[in-house]
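Review form for a predicted model. The reviewer records the input and the model, then writes brief findings.
Reviewer: anonymous (R2)
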Amino acid sequence: MTATEAQLASTVLMIRPVRFEANPLTAESNAFMAAMSADAEEQQRAALEGFEAVVAALEAAGVNVVAIDDTAEPHTPDSVFPNNWISFHADGTVVLYPMQAENRRTERRLDVLDVLSEQHGFQVGEVIDLSHHESDGHYLESTGSLVLDRQNRVAYACLSSRTHLDPLGDFAQRLDYEIVAFDAVDRDGKPIYHTNVLMSIGERFAVVCAAAIPDPAQREAVLSRLAASGRQVVELSYDQLEAFAGNLLELRAADGARVVALSEQALDALTPEQRALLEANGRIAVADIAAIEASAGGSVRCMLAEVHLPLLPGSTESV
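Model under review:
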Protein backbone atom coordinates (compact mmCIF):
# COMPACT_ATOMS: atom_id res chain seq x y z
CA MET A 1 0.00 0.00 0.00
CA THR A 2 1.42 3.37 -1.03
CA ALA A 3 -1.51 5.79 -1.18
CA THR A 4 -1.42 8.73 1.21
CA GLU A 5 -4.34 8.38 3.57
CA ALA A 6 -6.31 11.05 5.39
CA GLN A 7 -7.15 10.38 9.02
CA LEU A 8 -10.81 11.23 8.60
CA ALA A 9 -13.39 9.62 6.34
CA SER A 10 -16.42 11.46 4.94
CA THR A 11 -18.41 8.30 4.30
CA VAL A 12 -19.26 5.51 6.71
CA LEU A 13 -20.78 2.09 6.16
CA MET A 14 -23.52 1.07 8.60
CA ILE A 15 -25.51 -2.17 8.74
CA ARG A 16 -29.16 -1.75 9.70
CA PRO A 17 -30.09 -4.44 12.26
CA VAL A 18 -32.79 -6.96 11.42
CA ARG A 19 -32.46 -9.48 14.27
CA PHE A 20 -30.37 -7.60 16.83
CA GLU A 21 -29.99 -9.45 20.12
CA ALA A 22 -27.53 -9.73 23.00
CA ASN A 23 -25.00 -12.30 21.80
CA PRO A 24 -24.16 -15.02 24.35
CA LEU A 25 -21.01 -15.94 22.40
CA THR A 26 -19.43 -12.52 23.01
CA ALA A 27 -20.49 -12.03 26.63
CA GLU A 28 -17.54 -13.88 28.18
CA SER A 29 -14.95 -11.55 26.69
CA ASN A 30 -16.99 -8.32 26.74
CA ALA A 31 -17.44 -6.97 30.26
CA PHE A 32 -19.34 -3.97 28.87
CA MET A 33 -22.37 -6.14 28.15
CA ALA A 34 -25.14 -5.90 30.75
CA ALA A 35 -27.86 -8.43 31.44
CA MET A 36 -30.87 -7.75 29.25
CA SER A 37 -34.35 -8.70 30.40
CA ALA A 38 -36.08 -7.55 27.23
CA ASP A 39 -37.13 -10.19 24.74
CA ALA A 40 -35.51 -10.41 21.32
CA GLU A 41 -38.26 -8.46 19.58
CA GLU A 42 -37.93 -5.56 22.01
CA GLN A 43 -34.12 -5.59 21.72
CA GLN A 44 -34.44 -5.36 17.93
CA ARG A 45 -36.95 -2.52 18.15
CA ALA A 46 -34.74 -0.52 20.51
CA ALA A 47 -31.60 -1.19 18.46
CA LEU A 48 -33.28 -0.10 15.23
CA GLU A 49 -34.44 3.10 16.90
CA GLY A 50 -30.88 3.79 18.06
CA PHE A 51 -29.46 2.94 14.65
CA GLU A 52 -31.73 5.42 12.88
CA ALA A 53 -30.84 8.07 15.47
CA VAL A 54 -27.13 7.66 14.65
CA VAL A 55 -27.81 7.86 10.91
CA ALA A 56 -29.86 11.03 11.40
CA ALA A 57 -27.21 12.66 13.61
CA LEU A 58 -24.41 11.90 11.15
CA GLU A 59 -26.34 13.08 8.11
CA ALA A 60 -27.39 16.27 9.91
CA ALA A 61 -23.69 16.92 10.59
CA GLY A 62 -22.84 16.44 6.91
CA VAL A 63 -21.39 12.93 6.95
CA ASN A 64 -22.34 10.58 4.11
CA VAL A 65 -23.89 7.34 5.38
CA VAL A 66 -24.21 4.15 3.35
CA ALA A 67 -26.77 2.13 5.30
CA ILE A 68 -27.27 -1.46 4.16
CA ASP A 69 -29.90 -3.76 5.64
CA ASP A 70 -28.76 -6.89 7.41
CA THR A 71 -30.23 -10.21 6.31
CA ALA A 72 -32.56 -12.23 8.53
CA GLU A 73 -30.62 -15.42 7.80
CA PRO A 74 -28.11 -16.38 8.92
CA HIS A 75 -28.79 -14.81 12.31
CA THR A 76 -26.08 -12.24 13.03
CA PRO A 77 -27.04 -10.58 16.34
CA ASP A 78 -24.05 -8.17 16.28
CA SER A 79 -24.21 -7.12 12.63
CA VAL A 80 -24.81 -3.51 13.70
CA PHE A 81 -21.02 -3.42 14.35
CA PRO A 82 -19.46 -3.75 10.86
CA ASN A 83 -16.21 -2.16 11.99
CA ASN A 84 -15.22 -5.54 13.46
CA TRP A 85 -15.01 -7.46 10.17
CA ILE A 86 -13.93 -5.02 7.46
CA SER A 87 -11.70 -2.01 6.86
CA PHE A 88 -11.29 0.23 3.81
CA HIS A 89 -8.12 1.99 2.68
CA ALA A 90 -7.18 4.87 0.39
CA ASP A 91 -5.55 2.80 -2.35
CA GLY A 92 -8.70 0.69 -2.77
CA THR A 93 -7.58 -2.12 -0.48
CA VAL A 94 -10.27 -3.88 1.55
CA VAL A 95 -9.34 -6.09 4.51
CA LEU A 96 -11.52 -8.87 5.94
CA TYR A 97 -10.74 -9.99 9.49
CA PRO A 98 -10.82 -13.11 11.69
CA MET A 99 -13.60 -13.04 14.32
CA GLN A 100 -13.68 -14.87 17.63
CA ALA A 101 -17.42 -15.62 17.88
CA GLU A 102 -18.55 -18.17 15.31
CA ASN A 103 -21.91 -16.49 14.84
CA ARG A 104 -20.17 -13.23 13.93
CA ARG A 105 -18.16 -14.70 11.06
CA THR A 106 -21.17 -14.73 8.75
CA GLU A 107 -21.32 -10.93 9.08
CA ARG A 108 -18.61 -10.83 6.39
CA ARG A 109 -20.54 -9.97 3.20
CA LEU A 110 -18.82 -9.40 -0.11
CA ASP A 111 -22.07 -8.02 -1.57
CA VAL A 112 -21.36 -4.90 0.51
CA LEU A 113 -18.41 -4.21 -1.81
CA ASP A 114 -20.72 -4.42 -4.81
CA VAL A 115 -23.07 -1.88 -3.25
CA LEU A 116 -20.22 0.52 -2.50
CA SER A 117 -18.88 0.22 -6.03
CA GLU A 118 -22.01 -0.02 -8.16
CA GLN A 119 -24.33 2.26 -6.20
CA HIS A 120 -21.94 4.73 -4.58
CA GLY A 121 -19.01 5.01 -6.97
CA PHE A 122 -16.18 3.70 -4.82
CA GLN A 123 -13.22 1.87 -6.31
CA VAL A 124 -12.53 -1.52 -4.76
CA GLY A 125 -9.08 -2.93 -5.44
CA GLU A 126 -7.32 -5.80 -3.69
CA VAL A 127 -9.28 -7.72 -1.05
CA ILE A 128 -6.98 -9.04 1.68
CA ASP A 129 -8.65 -11.85 3.60
CA LEU A 130 -7.13 -12.51 7.02
CA SER A 131 -9.98 -14.74 8.16
CA HIS A 132 -7.86 -17.90 7.69
CA HIS A 133 -6.32 -17.11 11.10
CA GLU A 134 -9.59 -18.33 12.62
CA SER A 135 -8.52 -21.91 11.92
CA ASP A 136 -5.57 -21.39 14.30
CA GLY A 137 -7.71 -19.76 16.99
CA HIS A 138 -6.17 -16.34 16.33
CA TYR A 139 -8.32 -13.23 15.90
CA LEU A 140 -8.07 -9.59 14.91
CA GLU A 141 -11.41 -7.78 14.82
CA SER A 142 -10.62 -4.93 12.44
CA THR A 143 -10.94 -1.40 13.82
CA GLY A 144 -12.29 -2.81 17.05
CA SER A 145 -8.92 -4.45 17.68
CA LEU A 146 -6.98 -1.78 15.81
CA VAL A 147 -7.06 1.97 16.41
CA LEU A 148 -5.36 3.40 13.35
CA ASP A 149 -3.26 6.51 13.01
CA ARG A 150 -3.74 6.43 9.26
CA GLN A 151 -1.65 9.53 8.60
CA ASN A 152 1.45 8.02 10.23
CA ARG A 153 0.66 4.36 9.56
CA VAL A 154 0.65 3.32 13.20
CA ALA A 155 -1.81 0.74 14.55
CA TYR A 156 -2.51 0.61 18.29
CA ALA A 157 -3.78 -2.71 19.64
CA CYS A 158 -4.51 -3.94 23.14
CA LEU A 159 -4.05 -7.70 23.25
CA SER A 160 -7.03 -9.81 24.29
CA SER A 161 -8.90 -12.96 23.36
CA ARG A 162 -10.03 -11.07 20.26
CA THR A 163 -6.68 -9.53 19.33
CA HIS A 164 -3.67 -11.79 18.72
CA LEU A 165 -0.10 -11.18 17.62
CA ASP A 166 -0.04 -13.47 14.56
CA PRO A 167 -2.80 -11.70 12.61
CA LEU A 168 -1.47 -8.37 13.91
CA GLY A 169 1.85 -9.14 12.28
CA ASP A 170 0.10 -10.24 9.11
CA PHE A 171 -1.84 -6.97 8.98
CA ALA A 172 1.29 -4.92 9.61
CA GLN A 173 3.25 -6.64 6.86
CA ARG A 174 0.49 -6.56 4.29
CA LEU A 175 -0.50 -2.93 4.89
CA ASP A 176 2.87 -1.50 5.95
CA TYR A 177 1.87 -0.41 9.46
CA GLU A 178 3.91 -0.03 12.63
CA ILE A 179 2.25 -1.85 15.53
CA VAL A 180 2.05 -0.50 19.08
CA ALA A 181 0.76 -3.48 21.06
CA PHE A 182 -0.01 -3.37 24.76
CA ASP A 183 -2.12 -4.90 27.52
CA ALA A 184 -5.15 -3.11 28.95
CA VAL A 185 -7.54 -4.08 31.72
CA ASP A 186 -10.74 -2.77 33.26
CA ARG A 187 -10.95 -1.68 36.89
CA ASP A 188 -11.46 -5.34 37.91
CA GLY A 189 -8.30 -6.45 36.12
CA LYS A 190 -10.13 -8.14 33.23
CA PRO A 191 -8.61 -7.65 29.75
CA ILE A 192 -10.40 -4.99 27.71
CA TYR A 193 -11.85 -6.78 24.72
CA HIS A 194 -11.36 -4.11 22.05
CA THR A 195 -8.90 -1.26 21.69
CA ASN A 196 -11.56 1.11 20.36
CA VAL A 197 -13.37 1.29 23.70
CA LEU A 198 -10.10 2.42 25.27
CA MET A 199 -8.93 5.03 22.77
CA SER A 200 -9.66 6.97 19.60
CA ILE A 201 -7.46 8.99 17.28
CA GLY A 202 -8.70 12.05 15.43
CA GLU A 203 -6.91 14.48 13.19
CA ARG A 204 -5.67 16.82 15.92
CA PHE A 205 -6.46 15.00 19.15
CA ALA A 206 -6.53 11.54 20.67
CA VAL A 207 -8.46 10.22 23.66
CA VAL A 208 -7.16 7.34 25.76
CA CYS A 209 -7.78 5.78 29.16
CA ALA A 210 -4.11 5.49 30.08
CA ALA A 211 -5.02 4.23 33.55
CA ALA A 212 -6.24 1.01 31.91
CA ILE A 213 -2.69 0.19 30.73
CA PRO A 214 -1.13 -1.31 33.86
CA ASP A 215 2.45 -1.67 32.66
CA PRO A 216 4.23 1.70 33.07
CA ALA A 217 6.53 1.09 30.10
CA GLN A 218 3.66 0.19 27.81
CA ARG A 219 1.62 3.15 29.05
CA GLU A 220 4.48 5.53 28.36
CA ALA A 221 5.06 3.99 24.93
CA VAL A 222 1.42 4.62 23.96
CA LEU A 223 1.29 8.15 25.34
CA SER A 224 4.63 9.20 23.88
CA ARG A 225 3.77 7.76 20.45
CA LEU A 226 0.47 9.65 20.46
CA ALA A 227 2.19 12.85 21.54
CA ALA A 228 4.87 12.41 18.88
CA SER A 229 2.14 12.48 16.25
CA GLY A 230 1.44 16.08 17.21
CA ARG A 231 -2.02 15.40 18.62
CA GLN A 232 -3.41 16.74 21.85
CA VAL A 233 -3.82 13.75 24.15
CA VAL A 234 -6.95 13.72 26.31
CA GLU A 235 -6.85 11.17 29.11
CA LEU A 236 -10.06 9.46 30.23
CA SER A 237 -10.97 8.02 33.62
CA TYR A 238 -12.32 4.53 34.22
CA ASP A 239 -15.78 6.02 34.77
CA GLN A 240 -15.58 7.65 31.34
CA LEU A 241 -14.25 4.47 29.77
CA GLU A 242 -17.23 2.56 31.14
CA ALA A 243 -19.56 5.19 29.64
CA PHE A 244 -17.98 4.58 26.19
CA ALA A 245 -16.29 8.00 26.07
CA GLY A 246 -13.32 6.33 24.39
CA ASN A 247 -15.58 4.86 21.71
CA LEU A 248 -15.93 8.01 19.64
CA LEU A 249 -14.94 8.62 16.03
CA GLU A 250 -13.90 11.78 14.25
CA LEU A 251 -15.14 12.13 10.67
CA ARG A 252 -15.17 14.75 7.91
CA ALA A 253 -18.35 16.47 6.72
CA ALA A 254 -18.96 17.10 3.04
CA ASP A 255 -18.18 20.79 3.55
CA GLY A 256 -14.81 19.95 5.11
CA ALA A 257 -15.76 20.48 8.75
CA ARG A 258 -14.65 17.96 11.36
CA VAL A 259 -17.37 15.92 13.08
CA VAL A 260 -17.07 13.95 16.33
CA ALA A 261 -19.58 11.10 16.59
CA LEU A 262 -20.36 9.61 19.98
CA SER A 263 -23.23 8.43 22.12
CA GLU A 264 -25.31 10.53 24.50
CA GLN A 265 -23.96 8.50 27.42
CA ALA A 266 -20.37 9.14 26.31
CA LEU A 267 -20.92 12.87 25.85
CA ASP A 268 -22.55 13.17 29.27
CA ALA A 269 -19.53 11.47 30.87
CA LEU A 270 -17.06 14.09 29.64
CA THR A 271 -15.90 16.92 31.84
CA PRO A 272 -16.87 20.46 30.79
CA GLU A 273 -13.28 21.03 29.64
CA GLN A 274 -13.22 17.85 27.55
CA ARG A 275 -16.57 18.64 26.01
CA ALA A 276 -15.44 22.18 25.19
CA LEU A 277 -12.38 20.77 23.44
CA LEU A 278 -14.55 18.57 21.22
CA GLU A 279 -16.98 21.38 20.48
CA ALA A 280 -14.13 23.73 19.57
CA ASN A 281 -12.73 21.07 17.27
CA GLY A 282 -15.86 20.63 15.14
CA ARG A 283 -19.47 19.54 15.07
CA ILE A 284 -20.80 17.01 17.55
CA ALA A 285 -23.00 14.19 16.23
CA VAL A 286 -24.66 12.53 19.21
CA ALA A 287 -27.39 9.90 19.58
CA ASP A 288 -28.99 7.93 22.38
CA ILE A 289 -28.10 4.27 21.83
CA ALA A 290 -28.33 3.09 25.42
CA ALA A 291 -30.06 -0.14 24.41
CA ILE A 292 -27.27 -1.10 22.02
CA GLU A 293 -24.58 -0.15 24.52
CA ALA A 294 -26.13 -2.22 27.30
CA SER A 295 -27.08 -5.36 25.40
CA ALA A 296 -24.17 -5.57 22.95
CA GLY A 297 -21.36 -3.80 24.82
CA GLY A 298 -20.42 -1.44 22.02
CA SER A 299 -21.15 2.17 21.14
CA VAL A 300 -21.23 4.60 18.22
CA ARG A 301 -17.69 4.03 16.92
CA CYS A 302 -18.35 0.28 16.75
CA MET A 303 -21.30 0.96 14.44
CA LEU A 304 -19.19 2.83 11.86
CA ALA A 305 -16.85 1.38 9.23
CA GLU A 306 -15.03 4.32 7.64
CA VAL A 307 -14.97 4.20 3.84
CA HIS A 308 -11.55 5.49 2.78
CA LEU A 309 -11.79 4.01 -0.72
CA PRO A 310 -11.02 6.19 -3.75
CA LEU A 311 -13.75 7.19 -6.15
CA LEU A 312 -14.22 5.58 -9.53
CA PRO A 313 -13.45 7.95 -12.44
CA GLY A 314 -16.43 10.20 -13.05
CA SER A 315 -18.10 9.44 -9.75
CA THR A 316 -19.64 12.32 -7.84
CA GLU A 317 -20.18 10.51 -4.51
CA SER A 318 -19.29 12.80 -1.61
CA VAL A 319 -16.24 11.50 0.23
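Findings: The chain has a mean pLDDT of 91.
Further findings: The CA atoms of residues 243 and 265 lie 6 Å apart.
Recommendation: see findings above.
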